[in-house]
Structure formats: C-alpha cells, structure tokens
Amino acid sequence: MRGMIPVAALATALLVPVAQAGEDPRQPIELEAPQRAAVLGEMRQFVEAIDTILDATLAEDMERVARAAKPMGMAAVRRTPEPVRQALPGGFMQMGRGTHQAFEAIARDAEALGDPRHTLEQLSRATSSCVACHRSYRIVTAD
Ligand code: HEC
Fold first, then answer.
1. Are the C-beta atoms of residues 28 and 139 closer than 8 Å to each other?
2. Is the Cβ–Cβ distance between 122 and 106 less than 8 Å?
3. How many CB atoms lie within 10 A of CB 45?
4. What would the pLDDT profile of 30-62 be if each residue is shown by its tens digit?
5. Closest Cα to atom 24, ligand 1: which residue?
C-alpha cells in the first residue's frame, strides 16, 4: 500500500497536462498587424542583444556588452510606438518595462564594474522575465 500514493500522485500529474492539451493558457492580446510586427521585431532584437552579450561576456569585452545592452534598455521603451503602447495590457507593459530595466542595468554595470560573472547573473535574471511573459501572453491579429 505504501507505494500506492506516489503512483496515484504521478498518474494525476501526468493526467493534468493531457486534460489541458489543445488549450492555450496564455492570455491573447489583440493587435493590428503593424503593431504585432513592431512587438515581434523588438523581441528579435532582444535575442540578438543576448547573443552579443554572451559572446562579449565570454571574451570579457565589457564595453561591447554595454553597447549591446544599452539600446535594449529604457531607450527601447521610449522607442515603442504610441499605438502599440495603447494596445498592450498593463501587466504586459509592466513586465516589458522590468525587462528593459534589466538590460539598462546590464549596460550600466558592465561599464561601471566590468565583471563578467555579474553580467551573466543579471542576464540570467533578465531571461527569466522573457520566460515569464511568454508563459502569460500570446498575440493575435485583429484581422
Ligand atoms: C512583456 C512580455 C514579454 C517579454 C518581457 C518578452 N517577450 Fe518575447 N514575446 C512576447 C509575446 C507575447 C510574443 C508572441 C508570442 C505568440 O504570439 O505566440 C513574443 C515573441 C517573441 C519571439 C518571437 C519573435 C517572432 O518574430 O516571432 C522572440 C524571439 C522573443 N519573444 C524573444 C524574447 C526575449 C529574448 C525576451 C527577453 C529578453 C523576451 N522575448 C521578452 C512577450 C514578451
């Protein structure tokens, strides 16, 4: 009998995702096609920045780290077109702002401290925000 409870718990754990298969738990955000393109374009810039930051951090080129991170900092928030800003829910904007603040901090500390390990810790925290938001939202087009 003692073995039964873990088996039952395992079966439940396996059944839950099956029951939800086909359902997308992410909240849909409805955007016009150009706004969607703007958001996705910014996302791809994030990946490019991460790619450069990792490469530069390994090379201990902290000036290059700062140059790659800086444009994805608060400057990117200011670049967000007004119609996109209007269309995005508050929770999305908040998570987005936090992620941009993280890149701002990576740029600042890369210059001020020049410590590759610190940069990696910051980047690791930043990519957790990517994951958190990707779990929460998806974009659908209005047309
Ligand atoms: C505030 C929310 C949010 C944050 C933060 C966020 N993303 Fe996204 N990202 C999204 C949404 C929503 C999509 C569209 C997903 C969908 O519709 O299936 C997306 C899509 C993407 C795509 C696909 C782009 C394309 O052309 O299709 C990439 C790549 C991406 N994100 C990378 C990142 C990276 C890297 C980070 C962190 C540095 C990040 N994102 C942070 C919400 C976010």
1. yes
2. yes
3. 14
4. 999 999 999 999 999 999 999 999 999 999 999
5. 40
User: Going by CATH, does the domain composed of 26-141 fall within 1.10.10?
Assistant: no
CB-defined site of ligand 1, < 6 Å: 40, 43-44, 46-47, 50, 92, 95-96, 99, 126-127, 129-130, 133-134, 137-139
Residues 137/29, Cβ–Cβ less than 8 Å? yes
Question: Which pLDDT does position 6 carry in this prediction?
Answer: 57
Give SS3 for 80: coil
Separation CA 50–CA 66 (nearest Å): 11
Listed residue (93, 130, 92, 124) closest to 106, CA to CA: 124
CA of residue 40 to ligand 1 center, whole Å: 7
Distance separating alpha carbons of residues 129 and 99, to the nearest angstrom: 6
Quote the pTM value: 0.87
**C-alpha to C-alpha distance for 112 and 117, rounded to whole angstroms:** 14
